[in-house]
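Q: Could you fold this chain for me?
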Amino acid sequence: MSRPYNPPEAKVAEMLSRFTPRQLAIGYLRAQHRARGAEVAFHLMASVNDMTLSAVTGDYKGARNAVETAKTHLRTSKEPSE
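A: Sure. Below is the predicted structure, expressed as structure tokens.
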């Protein structure tokens, strides 16, 4: 896994001077939401790929397991309504 990004202090100071804490919080939460969506999409694509390869090779039990994995990712990714 890659190392966490640590921005230079000058960039941090610039962001703090340009935006209110509320704007920064909204931006952070939007980025977090996008990242979560991208992670779910990645897992779903991997499950679809596993399902396809299993079905092509005749491993229908493996294909069924891949579908169940995809369903699990979808079910656990849903956020409660605000």
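A (continued): The helical segments are 9-18, 21-56, 60-77.
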